[in-house]
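Re-running the complex after MR caught last week's input typo. The corrected sequence lines follow. Everything else is unchanged.
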Amino acid sequence: MRGFAVRSTVEDAWSWIDTTVQSRTALDCESVELLEAAGRVLTETVVSQFSVPAFSRSMMDGYAVRSEDTYGASPASPLPLRIIGSSFPGRPAAETVRGGTAVRIMTGAPVPNGADAVLPVEFTTTENELVQISGEVSPGKNIGIPGEDIRKNESVLNAGRWLRPQDVGLLSAIGRKTVTVRRRPRIRILVSGNEILPPGNLPTDFRIPDSNGPMLKALAERDGACVTLSDIIPDDPAQLLAELQCGVDVVLVSGGSSVGQEDHIPVLLRTHGELAIHGIAMRPSSPAGMGRIGRSLVFLLPGNPVSCLCAYDFFAGRAIRMMGGRKPEWTYHRVSAPLKRKLVSTVGRVDYARVRFENQEVEPIAISGASVLSSTTRADGFVVIPADSEGYAAGTSVDVYCYE
Amino acid sequence: MRGFAVRSTVEDAWSWIDTTVQSRTALDCESVELLEAAGRVLTETVVSQFSVPAFSRSMMDGYAVRSEDTYGASPASPLPLRIIGSSFPGRPAAETVRGGTAVRIMTGAPVPNGADAVLPVEFTTTENELVQISGEVSPGKNIGIPGEDIRKNESVLNAGRWLRPQDVGLLSAIGRKTVTVRRRPRIRILVSGNEILPPGNLPTDFRIPDSNGPMLKALAERDGACVTLSDIIPDDPAQLLAELQCGVDVVLVSGGSSVGQEDHIPVLLRTHGELAIHGIAMRPSSPAGMGRIGRSLVFLLPGNPVSCLCAYDFFAGRAIRMMGGRKPEWTYHRVSAPLKRKLVSTVGRVDYARVRFENQEVEPIAISGASVLSSTTRADGFVVIPADSEGYAAGTSVDVYCYE
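Corrected-run output:
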């Protein structure tokens, strides 16, 4: 049993994560149905095989006309045109618009031959086969030209794109049925500890149900991962090693990360892989660590639930998001507001302080022990105090990352 | 065929949505497994049946001691204590700590009888059965007291809570296996139009694959809904009515919302339900509308894809989020930055302008037709210009809602 000799900085840890994820072969791709593609990360550059629209189409409900036939028309002196047909979406008019005639047309319908503009319905009144027009249109007015939205052979979305709802709409418009996206990172959560009961059990005597496994599963799924949760593993090196070598992309180890007598994981990593970082200059989460075994990145997350959440947010989540092709940054909304009370830290370590909003002010949560999970459920978010700061005076405007 | 006589304001539409959703019976509840509960909205107030921790536990790896035995200990003059046992998490020590003795203890382990503090391992050196201590601890130091995190019979999470990952952890810690949450709103997307092909088809002649259905499905799922997508429905009133009466919470109608000859839906709503709003003073999406039929809210979304996206974001999404117990506001991140070019609007209507970031400046996307879906895939987000504004001069700082 001994303390940490030297603690790494948060920046050291980020740098190791970034380098390690980038030097690793990217996750393979998979094909998904378009209707399931939102929120996935594209791995192909999509080139359209079609122009959208493929034909001249009306942008308004109204009349397809020859623009020169409208010149001089006004509410005071309307001009008559003879209605010779109708163009509906998907059912174009067969007629050709010649001098003095017009074709009734709907939004999205093909513009008939001969017409070079669409006069909106608001500028017309209809009497049997005649339409009286009370406005002018210039050539091309209210007509969408072929390729206006997408040109044939144009790249519409690049590899690496996080697919938004409208991207999915666009892909459908150019006839895609499936797209190629990055596989989700596969995450295994190992929970060890003889005192831990599986989730769903009631606390008994000195044994407590696992809170970190369910929390980590939700966090990693939020970050786009495909997650499995191990049974509770006894403090047994052989069983722990087998789990560490299960071949997933990232192993999250809850508990057993410190330097205590039964903390086998750091030793296993050092022996069978790499223990790159162990002990970080931050509070909470100072016993956090990271390394790898085979192709799997391994994050050692402290058993204390606040430390576990913090270490996930700072380190494991970053790696998982990057592997999945997402931005490394937190997804939390950031809000600036003044501190209601001072927030004290120590130079040389990063602090993760839970806070809540009260009347537009930021109030530090008094109960701040790393074991007090309810401090993160009572909090609206957290403030990060950098290593070179002693904290902030009351009234200082701070950035709050809001839990979601 | 005629234009809209009077357009409602955006505020009128929001007010109708808010009143209608609030006066509607709330969606029923369902029980979900805890491991699937993140992101759901709680409908019960959760009271803990247990104290957490249930026993005095160590917050550090170190030695459980009587604090008075440590007084005077320093690196210069360490004091010896005799190690009489070990306390592990889940396996308490049987021994009682008396004067001159200590029990080796791990983080999370029960504090043995007789001890009133834990001395961290960093302040100790061990020689066989003796530990030399080089620091003092006051009573209670490094001990988590029962109920410190959660007190028995305390309300830990209130009804209406959007469950975060740490909430799921907390619920697990107090022995919950399932929780009661609000059912997801059930949404039916109706796509009508003789020219529309189902998603997954290639564009042919004057027929185009549906882009709005896939986009709306992704949007509504993002907002927590359970979504089904109809087949493409011909412009036939009987079939449209049957779909409108399918009994879901919200029907989204893409296309067929305007006042053209084949726009049956507004007539059906007026005849068989209520057409509350039709025509809104905004651009795009001015033909949007809303009403209800039976218990279902119905949103008429213009067929033009940008209008459809905008009308979803302004109206349908708000109703869906509220029904599901979420906040009505957009989930888009908001960023303020100066305009690179002026952004022109017209007093009397709200404008939804697609923009992109260029060198920290906000550049309006030039191609702004409501039919140009690629304007929303090229954009980084949008700026809302309120009805009382003629727009903004270059250099004005504007709020951009970032697409995600």
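None of the earlier attempt is carried over here. The first strand of chain A starts at residue 29 and ends at 33. The CA atoms of residues 271 and 293 of chain A lie 10 Å apart.
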